[in-house]
Structures are given as structure tokens and as C-alpha cells.
């Protein structure tokens, strides 16, 4: 097997917000093509492109109406094939988004399915009769607020949707559904696509007993269903393995102790998974307000979770490493300092992530230290935010508007979806017209052009880290050991390969912190550092200071 992705750094593009070339305010495929040289300069090896298929855009393309057609909003199929070819010429791989837990309700399969109980597509989705009192088949919730069931008048049944009601869940029990999906994957393979990021792939198998959840409208019982491994293995045998396509599956419920079941090469399921555990260290668990119940982030918890994944997958799987994506806020705004120490903080997070064993994923704008905007509630676009606002603030009234907005400013998905900030011209160089979603008003100072001219360039720092991933065997192969795990501010670990030891140190506070005494005595060289004037290990760590120091094993 060709494990090219182990030495690779991926870059995620959220096409709507990346680069608009035809002046309609929406990013497009030609906009990605135009920026290939930029991405090449950054040094990334593969691009994961969020969905660009035909879609009514209820969930920004995660609601697909036709898997084989590019949405005219983004361009056309020819342009996509061209993009794949041009990326390949530049030695970059293309990974598409595979959204096959659900489709759009506009997908022809669903349009047919809802017509009757006895047609070819009837069982493509999950339909159930109402309870005798007319209510939903069970109390499951949708991630976007309210019930996971919606009544369909024409069919006189409820259908299941883990997300918006316009995103009906597919019925993977039906072999025809699976073979349609595999065919679609082969179609894109024939166009040159190198792999897949798999949207909530761990939700494809449903618990067919449909047991009620302990609390209504929650989303337990929606992950890791009874046939999940079987379906994923089948997909591996049908498509991934024979066509050597890379796969990284989204796995919200995986724990470090069971994650290997999806990525152990011998099991022939997936290459990597995106896990969520480390992203929940600022969440109050089990709270009535779900993801909106926040607490200050717990650094020791973050370190221990990342460390346990390093340990558990070592030798039997491979980690996907990330802090940001289109569902996550800007990390420096969420867990750090996006003002006084914006450069230091952005590079500190980058250092600890890229120093780990696994494959790093950089999300557009992360490489220039973009930040969360603080919009008013009605300025956001996201269906998740709107649905949850309706549910928690308006209906349940378990959280006040003020508290909800404070959480939104920290974690809502739209934080990462503001248009890419290319320069300080009108509309940030993203578009000639007003973009589909508000720009972060800080674009005149935070943008690619300004960053590249700055002495403190986040981009240049990423460039160096990415180069290290390519050249240093230690980063791919070296053993990992977490040090000082309960230290509340410093994230310090060690990577060892043959006789070389690298110490990765980062201070996640805006105060000076002591470098532990035994590390002060080390002799060696700096591999990378975000305070250029640092010369020895003897100083304390400045606010958000990060560095990698290489020594020989003694
Ligand atoms: O996200 C799946 C997922 O688990 C989300 O519910 C996530 O926990 C939440 O959005 C965090 O706030 C995937 C896609 O990445 C997301 O963009 C889609 O909306 C969702 O699936 C449905 O396709
Ligand atoms: Ca456009």
C-alpha cells in the first residue's frame, strides 16, 4: 500500500469562502485554480475541498442533490477536471468530500422515495410510521435542533434526518444505496480524485431498534451503529483498496481506546479519522445546552487526550491532526489570544500540532492567523446556529440570548466561514462584489499580503513547519512522550527517533513561564522558534512562545 499521506500536509478549502473569480460574491473552482501557486508556495501536498456538488445549499453543500454534477455556483464539471489536472501537475493531490450519511431532499432518490412505499427508491431512506398518537417514532434529536424526524405528507410517514430536515439520512441497509455510492466514488476516481474526506461516516449504520434516548432531542445512539465497521470495510474492498484512494473519516464519538478499530490497516477500513475528543475540552459535558455550554479550556486535558491518541494509535493506525476546520472556530480566538499575541499564539498552536505523529490538516486562513468575528446574532448564516438558537433560546429557553451569543462568539461554525482575507483592498481581495457572507472587519490588517510582508509572518512559519514534515523522518516515525502533563500552561513533549531527541515546548499563557530546569541544561540546536531572539534554553518562555529544540540521546 502507498501511504503517501503519512508525510503529507493537507489544506482544507471551503470553496464558498475561498476566492471568487466571476464576481458573484461566492468562491468558485476557478478561484481555487487561481490560488494553486499560493498553495504550492505554502508547501501543502493535498487539498481537501468541501462539497461543490449540486446542492440547494441549506448546509453549504453538505446537502447534495447530485453527486456527479458540480453546482453552477462553483463552476462546472470541466473546470473541476481541470483543477484536478492542474493540481496534479503541481504534485498536489485532490481529496473530495464524501457526504453519504444523507443527501439533500432535492436529490432525485429522495424525490422518488417520498412518492410511495413501493417503488425502487422507497427504501433508500429511513421511513417510519407515526406512533398511534401521531407523534415521532422516537425522541431522537437533530444536530441542528429539534426532532430528527419530519413528517412527509405525500408518503404519510416520518423520515429520519440527523441534521437539517432537508438532509434525509440514507438507508445503508439497502445494498442498492451502497452500490450507488460506490459507483459515484468510482466516477470521481476516473476523473483523477485521490481520496475522500468522509462526512460523519460513523453514522451510516442505524440502530434498527430505534431506542429512545435518555433525554429527548439529544443525539446519542447516532454514532457507531451495529453495521458501521461492516459497511466501511465493504466500501474499502469495493473502492478504496482496489483504486488506492485515501480516506479520512469523520468520527465524532471515537475514543483513543477504540479509534484503532477504524484505522488499523489490517482491518482494511479507513486510513485516518478526524476525532472530536480533543476539541471538547472547553465543553461542559452532558449540559442541557449541548455544545453551547462552555467552560474555560483545560490545557492538561487537551494534552492528555492528544497524548493518549498518540500512544493508542502508535503502530496500529495513523492520526489526523487538526485544530480548525469549517465546523470549528478559529483556534486562537477560541483558546488563545487573537490580539496582542496573535502571531505567537497562532504559531504556538501550529508548533504543537505539527510536532505530533500523524498527518496535519491546515484550514484556509489558519496559515495567516485569521480570527473569529464577533457578529450580531442575525448576521450569521449557519443552519446549525439558527436551528440551535430557535431550539435552546426560543423554545426550551434554557440559555439566555446573551449567553448564547457569547458561546457563538467562541465556537460557532461560521467563525471559520468568513471569506478568506487575501489583501486590504475592498472585499479583502476575495471578490469584486459584496461576498455571500460578511467579511471579518479586521481584514485591512489581517490578510495574506500583509502577513507575507510582516517580520512576524504566520504563513512563513507554516511554510517551515510543512517543510520539516517533508524532510524530517523523526516527525513521521519518532516516538512520542508527553512531559509535565499536569502543567497548566506549558505544553511540552518529546519525540525520539534513533539517537535524536526533539523537545517541543509551547507556553499557552500570556505570562512568562519557567522552562523546566532539566530542559534548561540541554545542549543542541533550535529547529524552529517563534521568538526570533531566543538563543538558549535558559530563558523563561515568553507569552505564547513555542519552539522545537533538537538534542542527542544521552
Ligand atoms: O459535521 C458533523 C458533525 O458532527 C457536526 O454536527 C459537528 O459536530 C458540529 O457541526 C460542530 O458544531 C459534518 C460536516 O462537517 C458539517 O459541516 C455538516 O453540517 C454535517 O456533517 C452534516 O453534513
Ligand atoms: Ca464566484
Automatic annotation (TrEMBL):
Superkingdom field: Bacteria
Residue ranges constituting the Glycosyl hydrolase family 13 catalytic domain according to the UniProt record: 12-417
Keyword set, alphabetical order: Glycosidase, Hydrolase
Family the UniProt entry places it in: Belongs to the glycosyl hydrolase 13 family.
Short name of any one Pfam family annotated for the protein: Alpha-amylase
InterPro entries, alphabetized: GH, GH13_cat_dom, Glyco_hydro_b, O16G_dom_2
CDD domains xref list: AmyAc_SI_OligoGlu_DGase
Transcription among keywords: no
Organism: Candidatus Enterococcus ferrettii
Coiled-coil stretches noted in the UniProt entry, renumbered to this chain: none
Protein name per the record: Oligo-1,6-glucosidase
